């Protein structure tokens, strides 16, 4: 570089070098340079950090390349943080891009958290923590929506590192926190009050929370916004004193905040109302034991520390659960919400089942529970006896994650507000599509559906008019091509697919087109969401054929191919980084230290004797020395057996001192154990209810399937993956850390000091043992002093427990954040991420950090709007919803909320009713025309593909579609809420045996019923016959999206009151009648259906060609017949086995 006369670089040289630095781009060799050494990341970092602010701003590309480098590690991060925290860069208004690059980089996500954890454990952090604080505050101050950064910034880890610094007296905090640091912490606290607490950093303890029903009621009255509302039900709500107001799910909304609040409140009420109704019925003695399980005499017997946080172990009465088969029972399954009370339900404690070990339940009647939000509740103390209620009509885990996600959502977080909130929204293209980015290539998309004699255009601008030649060249129904075009060119695309029209096929084409053409336009994988695990498996298997860069998040898959693509399986296959292992070791060491402190505190609280250390802490030095000398004087000549120095007295010696002073061999018998009442069945008078009061608000809606049990099993499976992962990775560590830690609690906890003093007489209350000669006290006074010692020591130890629980919870959250960073590193390398709607809500934090730009939802009309809303991110640019609002709607727990508040109206249906642009598929390829004609009233434009007319004739029955009517009444309901009809079950089981005997494979036949009670009865009947044991029997609601050659339907309802129940729901009728390819046979009472609009049209169509009668026309094995049969006994004549005779 040339210099001027003073020896400084001349201006021309500076400008030349700056231009050169910009042009070289990532330090690449300039054209013509020879034998230039390749620049390492170390060299790049050194060169970047040596630049002044202007040069850094000009070399933003170099900065981005450093952050994105696979070689980036902690040693580089220190220098980058120092550069970002420099005063010149912080004060330069042009540096927004630099901080944004850092925020969005893989380095920030993968490296910053681990480095903060590692540094936060040491005494010599230098300026690193302060520099990190400066950078985070700067990023927050520059952000237009700072609260969106909650999941991106490692706030919890940074604050805990500062706490450790203050606690350990590190170099950065030895003289107290500087005013600058305090100001920055206050800034973060204002924006993130849940994650950042200045008081906690400075060492202040959180106050104990004691809530009453009155305080709950006040909270309800004062809370007017969803952000302030408790997710768990309050005591006041449960006893009906007051409740939050809910609004209906409207077609349009003026304010986005009202939109979020409406769905939060509706979803919250959907799980709370069954709880409220169940408890009221229980208090009246009118509850159903099948819906509400009541456990009395419940006790807390221990505490566990796990990688997920603190867990309580409770013990039930063995006689109440003696007959339960825990290997099969749904009772007390993972995630079940439990309500505890020891005061006749004046106050409530909510917890969820964390682990139900069958062996532990069978032998000790014990299970593990966890508080959903706060890690510690002082009311759950040993010695108390609780009554516990479990309502099995709702599954809290399915609600909890969505409610948390909605409560954390703010108006700016919601994308597409013009479409979501407005009436008749104007269609807009995805924001990543511009005039210069809409050239799409369809070579792969159209290759499988080109006609032999035509050549389809392979590339064209999708925002312009599509080439007319496509319709002649592709073997696609015109409506399918319209659907592909609509999906690719609309920001919020809606595709309605009536039964059999190939929604999944079209969905796969859309995904393939997006993947092939948006790799450079997207910065995140495509998110695919399905309602059920089975649908997700099928969809991802289809995607995997053209894109192997696919990962499945969440619940256990039944597809072997997708099980290998499970995120946790993939993460286990990637060795963790050195930084990760170091950070996890720091967390493990910290956890073990906290567990040791917890053990000590619990042992002190659980003890009913005063230890030597506690006595020395309670007394002044002079008083302890005088007391011990008094003991030696009391012994006289025997004092030689005891040391002279009182400060070497240990617990063994102190125990002997106490026995002599108190005149007893067992000092623990003087412990003032409170007498706890409760734990039995409370009185209904607590609720102010009369025994004959009624509650008709709650009525279960929809047939409850096995989804809750499956979700619980999936969660247990995933937790096992977590444990396997941790064990596998710890093999190489020198010291294996303890896994779950358990502290047994044997004794009742003593009262707090204030509570204890209230029980004393004025004389004993006035006794001040600190001013007395303890050896001159009378025996009753000595015992009273000992009790006060016990209570004081107990209260001091007990006061530490909430703080330790909080620290262990924070430790668990940091570990979860570390694991999340590893998962994100894998996810960012993928092209497709697949999840169920439940997984979307559960993995909210992961999705928030992944920031999906393209979201595709299958069976979107069957998903509650809140679930889809929580899957969207502020940066989401493209959403494709595929479904059919004329088939099953979303299921809700409370019928009233569906009927009066439209909770069961999906986002898909609401937008279509709003007039949003959508495409309907018009050609079905599943059902024979004889079957598809039944749903023409619902889909008048639906056409049959020519291939459906070529199906083989049905064997065993002289009709392809037939309704056999009867007049046999349904069974009495009994204890079950569900309906069943024994006549129909016998007939259907015999018909299935006849169909198998006629040549059908068991796998070709499926039996459907709208009622789970009938499903269970049908399974028992069909399982009796070895020839039909492989036939699937399922509820109608669980079979949407499925099909089979032969479908047999048992409608069940037949009663004098003409109550149709589920049969009156058009959506359910639609699903039931559209599952069959070759043959459909319905068994039911037509008198129940004739006055229903849709059923009357269906019956009229069936009567038109004599496909409705009281006898089913069957043919025998030799094709003789038809023979009309109207009972199982008549079918049995044609069967070799007489097992179906009634």
TrEMBL record:
SMART domains attached to this UniProt entry: DEXDc
InterPro entries, per database record: DNA2/NAM7-like (IPR045055), DNA2/NAM7-like_C (IPR041679), DNA2/NAM7_AAA_11 (IPR041677), Helicase_ATP-bd (IPR014001), P-loop_NTPase (IPR027417), SF1_C_Upf1 (IPR047187), ZNFX1 (IPR057373)
Region (Disordered): 668-711
GO CC annotation: chromosome; nuclear RNA-directed RNA polymerase complex
Keyword Cell division part of the UniProt annotation: no
One Pfam family of this chain: AAA_12
Protein's UniProt keywords contain Iron: no
Keyword line: ATP-binding, Helicase, Hydrolase, Nucleotide-binding
Highest taxon of source: Eukaryota
GO molecular function, one term: hydrolase activity
A Gene Ontology biological process term: regulatory ncRNA-mediated heterochromatin formation
Reactions accelerated catalytically: ATP + H2O = ADP + phosphate + H(+)
Residue span, Helicase ATP-binding domain: 472-878
PANTHER family per record: DNA2/NAM7 HELICASE FAMILY, NFX1-TYPE ZINC FINGER-CONTAINING PROTEIN 1
Protein name: Znfx1 protein
Biological source species: Symbiodinium pilosum
């Amino acid at each position: 570089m040339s210099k001027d006369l003073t020896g400084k670089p001349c201006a021309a040289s500076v400008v030349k070098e700056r231009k050169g630095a910009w042009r070289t781009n990532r330090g690449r060799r300039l054209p013509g340079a020879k034998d230039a050494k390749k620049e390492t990341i170390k060299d790049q970092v050194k060169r970047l950090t040596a630049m002044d602010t202007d040069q850094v701003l000009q070399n933003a590309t170099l900065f981005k390349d450093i952050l994105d480098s696979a070689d980036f590690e902690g040693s580089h991060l220190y220098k980058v943080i120092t550069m970002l925290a420099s005063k010149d860069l912080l004060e330069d208004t042009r540096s927004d891009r630099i901080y944004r690059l850092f925020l969005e980089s893989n380095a920030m996500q993968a490296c910053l958290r681990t480095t903060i954890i590692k540094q936060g454990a040491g005494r010599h952090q230098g300026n690193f923590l302060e520099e990190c604080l400066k950078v985070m505050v700067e990023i927050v101050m520059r952000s237009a929506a700072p609260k969106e950064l909650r999941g991106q910034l490692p706030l919890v880890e940074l604050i805990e590192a500062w706490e450790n610094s203050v606690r350990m007296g590190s170099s950065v905090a030895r003289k107290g926190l500087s005013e600058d640091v305090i100001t920055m912490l206050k800034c973060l606290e204002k924006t993130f009050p849940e994650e950042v607490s200045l008081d906690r950093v400075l060492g202040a303890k959180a106050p104990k929370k004691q809530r009453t029903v009155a305080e709950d009621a006040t909270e309800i009255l004062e809370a007017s916004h969803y952000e302030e509302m408790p997710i768990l039900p309050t005591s006041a709500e449960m006893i009906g004193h007051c409740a939050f107001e809910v609004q209906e799910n409207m077609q349009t909304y003026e304010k986005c905040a009202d939109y979020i609040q409406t769905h939060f409140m509706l979803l919250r009420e959907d799980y709370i109302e069954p709880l409220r109704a169940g408890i009221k019925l229980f208090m009246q003695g009118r509850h159903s034991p099948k819906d509400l399980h009541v456990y009395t005499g419940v006790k807390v017997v221990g505490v566990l520390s796990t990688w997920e946080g603190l867990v309580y172990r409770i013990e039930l009465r063995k006689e109440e659960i003696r007959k339960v088969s825990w290997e099969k029972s749904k009772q007390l399954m993972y995630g079940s919400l439990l309500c505890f009370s020891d005061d006749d339900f004046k106050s409530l404690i909510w917890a969820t089942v964390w682990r139900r070990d069958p062996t532990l339940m069978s032998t000790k009647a014990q299970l593990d529970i966890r508080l959903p939000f706060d890690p510690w509740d002082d009311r759950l103390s040993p010695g108390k006896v609780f009554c516990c209620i479990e309502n099995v009509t709702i599954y809290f885990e399915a609600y909890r994650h969505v409610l948390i996600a909605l409560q954390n959502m703010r108006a700016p977080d919601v994308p597409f507000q013009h479409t979501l909130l407005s009436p008749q929204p104007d269609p807009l293209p995805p924001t990543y599509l511009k005039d210069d980015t809409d050239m799409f290539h369809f070579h792969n998309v159209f290759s499988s559906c080109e006609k032999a004699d035509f050549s389809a255009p392979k590339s064209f601008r999708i925002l312009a008019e599509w080439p007319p030649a496509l319709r002649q060249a592709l073997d696609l129904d015109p409506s399918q091509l319209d659907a592909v075009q609509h999906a690719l060119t609309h920001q919020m695309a809606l595709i309605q697919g009536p039964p059999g029209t190939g929604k999944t096929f079209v969905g796969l084409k859309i995904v393939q087109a997006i993947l092939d053409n948006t790799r450079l336009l997207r910065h995140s994988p495509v998110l695919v969401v399905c309602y059920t695990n089975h649908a997700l498996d099928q969809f991802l298997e289809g995607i995997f054929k053209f894109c192997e860069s696919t990962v499945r998040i969440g619940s256990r898959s039944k597809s072997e191919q997708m099980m290998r693509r499970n995120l946790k399986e993939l993460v286990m296959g990637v060795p963790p980084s050195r930084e990760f292992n170091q950070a996890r070791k720091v967390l493990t060491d910290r956890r073990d230290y906290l567990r040791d402190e917890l053990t000590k505190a619990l042992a002190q609280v659980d003890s009913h004797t005063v230890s030597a250390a506690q006595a020395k802490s309670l007394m002044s030095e002079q008083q302890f020395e005088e007391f011990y000398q008094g003991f030696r004087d009391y012994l006289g000549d025997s004092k030689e057996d005891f040391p002279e120095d009182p400060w070497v007295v240990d617990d063994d010696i102190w125990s002997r001192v106490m026995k002599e002073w108190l005149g007893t061999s067992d000092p623990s018998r003087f412990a003032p154990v409170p007498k706890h009442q409760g734990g039995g069945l409370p009185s209904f008078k607590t609720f102010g209810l009369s025994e004959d009061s009624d509650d008709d608000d709650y009525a279960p809606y929809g047939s409850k399937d096995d989804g809750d049990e499956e979700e619980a099993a999936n969660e247990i499976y995933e937790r096992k993956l977590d444990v396997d992962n941790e064990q596998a990775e710890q093999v190489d560590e020198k010291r294996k850390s303890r896994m779950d830690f358990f502290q047994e609690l044997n004794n009742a906890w003593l009262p707090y000091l204030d509570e204890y003093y209230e029980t004393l007489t004025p004389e004993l209350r006035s006794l001040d043992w600190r001013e007395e000669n303890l050896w001159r006290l009378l025996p009753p006074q000595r015992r009273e002093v000992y009790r006060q010692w016990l209570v004081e020591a107990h209260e001091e130890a007990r006061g530490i427990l909430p703080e330790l629980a909080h620290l262990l919870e924070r430790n668990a959250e940091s570990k979860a954040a570390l694991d999340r960073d590893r998962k994100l590193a894998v996810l960012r390398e993928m092209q497709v991420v697949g999840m169920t709607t439940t997984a979307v809500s559960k993995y909210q934090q992961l999705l928030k950090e992944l920031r999906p730009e393209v979201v595709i939802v299958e069976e979107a009309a069957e998903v509650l709007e809140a679930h889809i809303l929580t899957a969207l991110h502020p940066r989401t640019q493209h959403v494709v919803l595929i479904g059919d609002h004329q088939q099953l709607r979303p299921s809700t727990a409370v019928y009233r909320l569906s009927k009066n508040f439209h909770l069961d109206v999906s986002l898909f249906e609401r937008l279509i009713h709003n007039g949003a642009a959508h495409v309907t598929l018009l050609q079905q390829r599943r059902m024979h025309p004889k079957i598809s004609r039944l749903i023409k009233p619902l889909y008048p434009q639906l056409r049959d593909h020519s291939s459906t007319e070529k199906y083989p004739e049905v064997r065993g029955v002289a009709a392809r579609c037939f309704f056999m009517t009867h007049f046999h009444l349904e069974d009495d309901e009994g204890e079950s809420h569900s309906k069943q009809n024994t006549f129909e079950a016998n007939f259907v089981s015999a018909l299935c045996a006849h169909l198998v005997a006629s040549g059908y494979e068991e796998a070709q036949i499926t039996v459907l019923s709208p009622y789970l009670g009938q499903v269970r009865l049908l399974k028992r009947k069909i399982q009796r016959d070895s020839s039909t044991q492989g036939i699937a029997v399922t509820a109608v609601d669980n079979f949407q999206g499925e099909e089979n050659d032969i479908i047999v339907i048992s409608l069940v309802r037949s009663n004098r009151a003409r109550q149709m129940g589920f049969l009156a729901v058009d959506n359910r009728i639609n699903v039931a009648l559209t599952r069959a390819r070759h043959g459909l046979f319905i068994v039911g009472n037509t008198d129940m259906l004739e006055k229903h609009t849709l059923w009357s049209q269906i019956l009229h169509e069936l009567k038109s060609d004599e496909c409705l009668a009281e006898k089913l026309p069957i043919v025998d094995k030799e094709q003789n017949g038809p023979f009309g049969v109207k009972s199982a006994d008549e079918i049995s004549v044609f069967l070799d086995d007489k097992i179906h005779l009634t």
